[in-house]
């Protein structure tokens, strides 16, 4: 018999499945320019790559999409959702890490002009924050809060989360107990998506680095 719940009461017996996907490649990604809270349109390659994800992701039976409200994510969701027409919610907590004074600069610019400061900040690991920007800890906390809120709102559903590399990286590094150690092998591969589960408030990684050509 289905257990009845009062208004606002979460169903802690239901397991919600999340798929984490980064937005498609943008023009600033191609130029290796830091976006952060700024925006850049998807590149032609980014639009093609996003379209190629559609048949792969469709196999998982997503019931809704939650996403960042930044333009590059909104464009990505529009491509994914042309056929699916899934209900979509945008959450500001899924925005990319704010890079403050370094937004708009290329990675080469930062390494050349701020080499010493960059090295000192990167050495802080989870405490890393660009000048005038946001720390990794802040990104982690708001991202986890967004996922847990979604699991409470739609318990037991399969939810595709379209967001940013900073959101995905801080979330998965936290859930796998990884530190941000300079020079360490990366946990995540480029252009992949990742599965998580959430039961109650407990988030767990299920499968990482699923490729577009994955055989399912």
Structural commentary:
The chain contains seven helices and six strands; from the N terminus they run E-H-H-E-H-E-H-H-H-E-H-E-E. A six-stranded mixed sheet has the order 3-2-4-1-5-6. The model is unreliable at 1-8 (pLDDT under 50). The longest helix has 18 residues, at 136-153. The chain has helices at 27-30, 44-58, 71-84, 107-113, 115-122, 136-153, 165-175; strands at 15-22, 64-67, 88-90, 158-163, 193-199, 202-210. The protein has 216 residues and is an alpha/beta fold. It has a single domain, classed as Phosphoglycerate mutase-like (Rossmann fold), CATH 3.40.50.1240. Strand 2, helix 3 (71-84) and strand 3 form a beta-alpha-beta unit.
End-to-end Cα distance, whole Å, is 33 Å
As residue ranges, the low-confidence spans are 1-8
Largest sheet data: 6 strands, mixed
Radius of gyration: 18 Å
CATH class: Alpha Beta
Question: What is the oligomer described by this structure?
Answer: single chain
**Run of helices and strands:** EHHEHEHHHEHEE
Counting helices, strands and paired strands, the structural category is alpha/beta
Strand runs, count: 6
Count of individual helical segments: 7
- Strand order within the widest beta sheet: 3-2-4-1-5-6
> What is the share of helical residues?
25-40%
Shape, please? Answer: globular
CATH superfamily: Phosphoglycerate mutase-like
What is the averaged pLDDT score? Answer: 94
Could you tell me the CATH topology label: Rossmann fold
Number of domains: 1
Which architecture does the CATH hierarchy give at level 2?
3-Layer(aba) Sandwich
Which percent band covers the strand fraction?
15-25%
